[in-house]
Amino acid sequence: MSILIKNAYIVTMDKDGAGEIENGFLLIENNLISKIGDNSNNAADSISAGTVIDAKGAILMPGLSNTHTHLGMTLLRGYADDMALQAWLETKIWPAEANLTAEDVYYGSLLGCLEMIRSGTTAFCDMYFFMDETAKAVEKAGIRGCLSYGMIEFGDEEKGNKELATNEKLVRDWQGKANGRITTMYGPHAPNTCCQSFIGRSKEAAERDGVGVHIHVLETEAELNQMKENHGMCSVHHLDAVDFWNTEKIPVLAAHCVWMSDGDIKLFAKKGVTVSHNPISNMKLASGIAPIQKMLDAGVSVSLGTDGCASNNNLNLFEEMKTAALLQKVGTMSPTALPAKAVVEMATVNGGRVIDKQTGVLKAGNKADMILVDIQKANATPVFDVYSHLVYAAAGSDVKTMIVDGKILMENYKVLVMDEEEVMKKAKECAFSLAERAKPKK
Ligand SMILES: O=c1[nH]cnc2c1ncn2[C@@H]1O[C@H](CO)[C@@H](O)[C@H]1O
Ligand SMILES: [Zn+2]
């Protein structure tokens, strides 16, 4: 199987390599990129391929990576808004989740995959329940998923053992499946919903199994205050005591990181932790503004995430890129903070690196995960600077074609891997039935 894409404006995101190629070609053989180059002299004409895509009028770039989602929560899009995080979780979200079924999570996940395909996201890191169902949805949709089970034990050892066993089963059953598109992590939920020793144990299990860890950390000021009151230190230092941030053996992914001190940032830089910045969720729940420019200056690898659809309320990383840039500028009162190219790097290179080292950059030998962004549109006229266009003017709905692992998932706006109408219909049925079951009993 080979695919040749030609006449594209290629944004490789390869710092040491090709950079941008105004009129380029890219050859895919099986699931890998085998060649990439300049086509202004029609060099691609001598290459034969099974499928040829003429990408004139489009940007070819690495697919985006969404490093923090709860995919099953797409069913709860718009279910509870305009609330503070703790009240939102305790009075609305957790009671609804208590009624979730496997079928709900399957269709919620499939709907999430569909939305990601339509808006340019080729890979994501998830933390939720019924993860077999999310894995099945990822298998069908053709994208790349790094799946963790959201473990919550509230200091209860017996519950903790069960939670660890459930996550372990996910790792055993799915790690490396679907030609490596499905990978797994351990997902201790947060430092204020899991105790320190449990989080330490989940890190040990992850190292034993050779997979990463994914956690929420310092999302709210309330968490910071609670940790200081109960343990005399912030969540980052509390978990450093069990060596949680050590990335020598496995990747460590920390979502939110809004209330990080300068010392926390230094520690993350030194340890090599990947941060998932979720600006829209942080704004919607009024959690605060994460110090992203400071993190980048300190050398922390920062990626982008949407969080679940109940706190965003979509999975559109183009919106997230623009919001990230704007929020940093207003947060630091500096218009030069978080410039466009740095944001694109977060959504591609940095996110890709934590999911699969062979993704996030278009270069020979990497996996063939990429998108075509349509620029024959009013909102793309003119394009002076491609990064500025992608962050400030482009929309998720401008993504016209997606290839993951060498397979075309969407071509010229047509999704090839599922019946869209059917998926939306089923997801809607599941969502309304779930809301009905979650109503308080009289
Ligand atoms: O922003 C958030 N902060 C903390 N928890 C969250 C957030 N969004 C979703 N969940 C919750 O995390 C668990 C995942 O396993 C779920 O209970 C989900 O509702
Ligand atoms: Zn979350």
From TrEMBL:
UniProt KW Protein biosynthesis keyword: no
Keywords, comma-separated and alphabetical: Hydrolase, Metal-binding, Zinc
Alphabetized Gene3D superfamilies for the sequence: Metal-dependent hydrolases, Urease, subunit C, domain 1
Cofactor entry: Zn(2+)
Reactions catalysed, as given in the entry: 5'-deoxyadenosine + H2O + H(+) = 5'-deoxyinosine + NH4(+); S-adenosyl-L-homocysteine + H2O + H(+) = S-inosyl-L-homocysteine + NH4(+); adenosine + H2O + H(+) = inosine + NH4(+); S-methyl-5'-thioadenosine + H2O + H(+) = S-methyl-5'-thioinosine + NH4(+)
Top EC category: hydrolase
EC number: 3.5.4.41, 3.5.4.31, 3.5.4.4, 3.5.4.28
Cofactor note: Binds 1 zinc ion per subunit.
Domain Amidohydrolase-related, residue spans: 59-409
Chain positions recorded as substrate binding sites: E97, H189, E219, D307
Residues annotated for Zn(2+) binding in this entry: H68, H70, H216, D307
Any GO molecular function: 5'-deoxyadenosine deaminase activity
Any GO BP annotation: S-adenosylmethionine biosynthetic process
Keyword Zinc: yes
Pfam families named in the record: Amidohydro_1 (PF01979)
Pathway the protein takes part in: Amino-acid biosynthesis; S-adenosyl-L-methionine biosynthesis
CDD domains the UniProt entry points to: ATZ_TRZ_like
Role, per record: Catalyzes the deamination of three SAM-derived enzymatic products, namely 5'-deoxyadenosine, S-adenosyl-L-homocysteine, and 5'-methylthioadenosine, to produce the inosine analogs. Can also deaminate adenosine. The preferred substrate for this enzyme is 5'-deoxyadenosine, but all these substrates are efficiently deaminated. Likely functions in a S-adenosyl-L-methionine (SAM) recycling pathway from S-adenosyl-L-homocysteine (SAH) produced from SAM-dependent methylation reactions.
Annotated family: Belongs to the metallo-dependent hydrolases superfamily. MTA/SAH deaminase family.
Name of the protein described by the UniProt record: 5'-deoxyadenosine deaminase
Native organism: Methanimicrococcus blatticola
